[in-house]
Design goal:
It is a single chain. This protein is of the alpha+beta class. The chain has 24 helices and 25 strands. It has six domains: 46 residues; 226 residues, D-amino Acid Aminotransferase, Chain A, domain 1 (2-Layer Sandwich), CATH 3.30.470; 94 residues, Nucleic acid-binding proteins (OB fold (Dihydrolipoamide Acetyltransferase, E2P)); 73 residues, DNA polymerase, domain 1 (Orthogonal Bundle); 76 residues, DNA polymerase, domain 1 (Orthogonal Bundle); 75 residues, BRCT domain (Rossmann fold, 3-Layer(aba) Sandwich), CATH 3.40.50. 35% of the residues lie in helices and 22% in strands. Helix 1 runs antiparallel to helix 2. About 1% of the residues have low confidence.
Length: 655
Amino acid sequence: MSDLERMKELVEQLDAAARAYYQESKELMSNKEYDELYDELAALEKKTGTVLAKSPTAHAGYEVLSALPKENHPSPMLSLDKTKEVSQLQEFLKDQTGILSWKLDGLTIVLTYENGTLTKAVTRGNGITGEVVTQNARQFENLPAKIPFKGRLVLRGEAVISYKDFERINEENPDADAKYKNPRNLCAGSVRQLNSQVTAGRHVQFIAFALVSAEDMTFNNSRRCQFEWLAAQGFDVVTYRMVTSTDLPDSVKWFANHIESNELPSDGLVLLMDDIAYGESLGNTAKFPRNAMAFKWKDETAETTLREIHWSPSRTGLINPVAVFDPVELEGTTITRASVHNVSIVESLKLGIGDTITVYKANMIIPQIAENLTQSSNLKIPSVCPVCGGPTKLVTNDEVTCLYCENPACTAKQTKAFELFVSRNAMNMEGLSEATIEKFIDSGFIHSFADIFHLKEHADEICKMDGFGEKSCSNLIASIDKARKVKLPALIYALGIPGIGVANAKVLARAFHQDLDKLRAATAEELTVVDGIGDVMAQAVCDYFNDSEKMEQLDSLLKELELVLEENNEKQYLENLTFVITGSVHHFANRNELKNYIEKHGGKAAGSVSAKTSYLINNDKESTSSKNKKAKELGVSILSEEDFLDLCKKMEAGE
């Protein structure tokens, strides 16, 4: 293949990947894969002196396609030139002072404030034209609705979703096909919503990283002064360190050492000239500004041998491929496994047992396969489930192929379902670990939830099993008998309805007045009226209660249980009030105990401050936490515990 033919091929691959990312919030390849192809193309362009018209090295993005309104940026939002060498950062900075910060991995947003109020929010889009997402931006959990500055302010920042919220949202997603691959994709999909209510539930944060203009302000010609001023206005500013070319390597190491503790996703660092006038005097290239440069981590890779692909079924039936290889040391830890995510990636890597592969930690955290050096492609996709032996099915959505077990009675599905059923926040049965559940399924003791309450009939056989004796068997039976008395929220959660976690189970029980029959008969329309229950969850609940087989099992289970109504002997003086709790507590054992107190008296304990919040409980009223800031912006009263208890006394007395 000639250089020109290879360049055309690279342009086509990169163009397809960029279009998918910018237009559809989909990811056809990893950042590492994109960067490697991009660097190969740039090297060939330098070698040949030719740049193709559609080359991504010649432009910064792609046309935005969606129903959101579009708007041109006053000045182009250019990409940053990048390097993986600290020495190049030093050469770039020379004798200047710089600001080194995280390169956050989300969706870039431009905000405009006028007269102290947010008036516009626009996505980066293709760098020339973005999408107007003002209403959605107002749902960002840490974004100030009003600021002290009354002039016109334009700033840029990154909309991001923390790793913790990413994992929670994916866990609550009932559709395995719709699970997000990484926090960036989830954030892009959350911000570019037509329904801002969806955005509100995703806990999107805005982290400022550039001040574009502030009417009649000079900032002593310093970017650092701009950052400090933005923080004083109530914005969360990206974590940064002031650097010179001498101490730059130490600061890069400092960030490297804090990657794992950083709650927000990042894919490198940004070095920015502190001197505003000097930086602007450097001008721009066609694609890059000359006052800043991105630093991408040079991934430490190791060569190893692929020994097997472990196909791991989940409760939804999705079978995830996991590569198992000879141990290697990366970033100070020993790794032997890496998720391959789906069948499409298995096939694109042409994996085979015994292949020589290179592995790395994506963003220095997540083990990934970088390359297959031998590409034997001898791996066969299982036609039967590795756990139950039932038939599997390949399902392709959005050009991604996944493997599913079609057997509704799959042991893996059953094991995960039983595991949830007996967990602490559900039926709270002790002595039923995953391994024990598997033994009981294999022995034919349990097929449905109701069967657990008949394990006493198999006591003699259980006592003879490894890990059991008369005492442990007796304790297990006692724990099961104790679980017969159960409150409705715990039962709803225990059923494993897709998307319904502990909090939503409580919400549903309360909304239907602790009446399971009313909940079973509820329509999707009735469910979506319930605060916190969206369309997807409402449909999941309806689908569950409309499944005749599941209802037959539920009726059998109910014969074994005594539903304990949460009789409200307690006065409901906190009814219709929503509280958010943050910080440490002193009058209660922990925040969970305070939350239970609120719910017991008719109130609702939410996780984040919104316009629906009645009070924020925080013993440190002057805290600069994002929840305190949000409460002050929205005019939500902040109570100490003492204030809260005083409020309760007054409400109880009817004052």
